[in-house]
Give the backbone structure.
Amino acid sequence: MTKKILILSVFVVASCGLAYELIAGALASYLLGDSILQFSTIIGCYLFAMGVGAHLSKYVKDEDVLARFVDIELAVGLIGGVSAALLFLAFSWMGAPFRTMLYAMVFMVGAMVGMEVPLVMRALNARQTGFSELVSRVLTFDYLGALAVSLLFPLVLAPHLGLVRTGFMFGMLNVGVALWTIYVFRRELENLTGRLLRASAVLVALVFGFIGADRMTQFGEHGLFGDEIVYSTTTPYQRLVITRWKDDLRLYINGNLQFSSRDEYRYHEALVHPAMEALPWARRVLVLGGGDGLALREVLRYPQVEQVTLVDLDPAMTQAFARREELVKLNQGAFSDKRVRVVNADAAIWLQNTEEMFDAVIIDFPDPSSFALGKLYSVPFYGMVKQHMAANGLLVVQSTSPFFAPHAFWTIDATLREVGLRTSPYHAYVPSFGEWGFILASPQREYKPPESYRLPMRYLNAETTRAMFSFPPDMKPLPMEPNRLNTQSLVNEFERDWRRSIR
């Protein structure tokens, strides 16, 4: 019986250890961007720390193995359980020490997790378990625990519990292992009362943290964004936060501002109308991204449009902007228009599987701040988009800032030209973002900016349109290589550009 308890403990502690690693990686990628860099460095630090912990385990005396195992479970449960909450609050309210705290916590948790399995193996060995059976059982359940969490974390835990609450939950599991070990081996452990009191205190702290996780998250996000948070959710794909200050609604994805309701009309008029005004015959329009419905709102202003297909990965995004009163008011009920079809899918996969053709394509993805997003700005992706465009149709891509991120902007232009599209770059001033860039492209036609608009505009007219297609010397074109999937040069250019621009 005692052997089975120890083997089951391996399954639980392996699950908890991997969970803390995934939480740290996900939180760092949410807050710092560049998910590959964050996950790679965190995994490397964690594995190195496990090696250190495995080495340190040899200094534990044989007679103290179970006692130290209980102590380590309590320490891992406490530090790992509160790690997500502490890191998020540190980033929100202090900023500077976040990276130091991140890697310090990853190292501490990794070192303690690295001690767990050797201590369990020594405990089993002391109970006359054969070496071959010992190793096979321990490693089997260790890997099974890792598999269980690797599946549950992205599908269930992160989207439904959130990172902070998930951390507290796994902390409680570690404490549960400690309490169960204390009970089963009570005759072999000294100072039972003291150990039970410590375990109970840690468990109570984690339970209160689990209950108050939402309040902690809201407190942290208030420090991060400053304004009242009217809506927030964690999905399998991203963290969505909507804030309000007076009459200004703002959308943040993974901490990055996507729009301000005070000036979003400038961005969305510039994104949509230079293309749509040049296509008075356009009947079928494809919008990729743009789950807020604001580009959709502008497209639907054209009476000749018969169908608009909007493809956005995250159903939580489109549902929020289709149902919440203040957001529906902002996009003027675009999602309830009978001409609109919403598809919640990966745009690249959807394009591979459809045979539909479109007269105009509006691409409104978030900036290429990660490799997952960078693929949507790549040669293969634009090649697929081109296959679904009418020969005289137009494609427009939001393309980050030609002033703050010129190398990234002109990389997108080079990528579009690489697939045989004729490009017409332009820019507009949006107060929330500064100078922002867009690129029009077509398989065949030569684009000429419109001299007037059939619809009334708040920002665009003949003068502003002419200015948009003229680049001053400090935003002149740069010779860049296309963004290919195997190198993802765009993501690196984007990060370098913005690193030079943001303090």
